[in-house]
Amino acid sequence: MQAFTTFRGIGIPIDVVNCDTDQIVPARFLRHSFGDKGYERYLFHDLRFDRAGQEKDFIYNTPPYRDGKVIVADLNWGCGSSREGAVTVMVANGIRAVIAPSFGDINYNNCMKHGVLPVRLPREVCDELRQQLHDRPGSEIAFDLQAQTVTGPSNTVYEFEIREFDKNRMLKGLDDIAMTRQYDTDFTSFESQHEKEYGWL
Questions:
Q1: 162 exposed, middle or buried (CB, 10 Å; 0-12, 13-18, 19+)?
Q2: N or C: which end of the chain has fewer CB within 10 A?
Q3: Does the domain at residues 6-174 carry the CATH identifier 3.90.70.10?
Q4: Who contacts 174 (Cβ-Cβ below 8 Å, separation ≥6)?
């Protein structure tokens, strides 16, 4: 996965409480995989498009938000099912971070596994950030993962908490497989020693 160190991108205010994984990517699209042609279109599909496939009045359809790379959400972002597609569909759209007062636990961890930084900030801060993004379309939000800071459109700096394990894996761009491959030498050494000691088995 792509490492996350510092990042700056246009913010997208999503004013939906309990925006669940089915709103992020409807279940009927889960048979499709990351990299499939048109996969990026499934993000917020039923909020963005009507039955005829025409765009509805939804913020992600509106310039410059459609080019946004940072979601600022309301309470309980990513609740619902455990589907990883709710994160990979964001990756397909170049979204690198989500700021919210709270997350569905599995969605929070899935973000970490795919290089999308999930940041918990107080609800009043998230409300303020979303209002700034509404008032000043195209405003950017900046992140410094090493310093654990977010800088909003007003240049106010906010600190956030993250587990050291998660911070390390994101800084290095390590998905689950890459995390395991760090121990390849240990595995090889063990197998060699095991063969010497128990080759007779």
A1: middle
A2: C
A3: no
A4: 1, 168, 182
What torsion do the CA atoms of 66, 122, 16, 82 make, to the nearest 10 degrees? 90
Q: How many helices and strands, by DSSP H and E, does the chain display?
A: 8, 7
Burial string for 75-102 (b: 16+ CB within 10 Å, else e) reads: ebbbbbbebbbbbbbbbbbebbbbbbbb
Cis peptide before 153 (omega within 30 of 0): no
Query: Residue 70 carries which side chain, given as an amino acid letter?
Result: V
> 143 near 98, Cβ under 8 Å?
no
Please report which residue ranges of 95-163 form alpha helices under DSSP H: 105-113, 123-135
Task: Give pLDDT tens digits for 108-164.
Answer: 999 999 999 999 999 999 999 999 999 999 999 999 999 999 999 999 999 999 999
Region label for 82, one of left (φ > 0), alpha (ψ between -120 and 50) or beta (otherwise): alpha
- State the maximum Cα–Cα separation within the chain, in Å, rounded to a whole number: 74
pTM value > 0.85: yes
Domain positions in the chain: 6-174
- Structure token pair of residue 168: 């390390």
Measured distance CA(50)–CA(170) in Å, rounded:
36
